[in-house]
Sequence to fold (177 residues):
Amino acid sequence: MKFPKKVSQKVDLILKKNEERKEREKEAALAVKKRKEDLEKLKQSRMPELLGYAREVSGWLNDFCSSEDLNKYFSASAFRSDLRIFCDSFWQGLPQPKHSYCYATITVNKNGKVSYGERYKGMLAHETELGRAPLNPEVLISKLPPDYLKNLAEHLRTDKVWDYIDEEVSAELRLFK
Fold:
């Protein structure tokens, strides 16, 4: 039995659309692969600089994770299992425009696990564990985008990190009102 022409044309159109979709997916996969390769080349070219940032960040995080105050925070916190200490507009390794829906965070949990998470409209899209204290600087270099690592180091170097943590703690305190 042969399909009527109008049905057959629609089936052919579906096949054509499927092929176009497969081609777009293939192009997107190649673009992701190229972006990862370019990011790796960038990391290699900036290795001495990134190693300095990574050592600074791992030192700060190691001290922070072993502090009694962090343990005190988690024992007092009834609502949180982690504490966000940094947020910046990044998505898939690339900086994003400020005030976009895409951003990346660094969180510390009550067991000392440090994680990098990318979020879209507040929802976690994916999370990468960076390790537990003591953190290895090379892991930070391999798992964080170079400019994100630089921005994180600058954030920790200033008192901005404490302003950020203060906002997080204040938000939890408002839950008791």
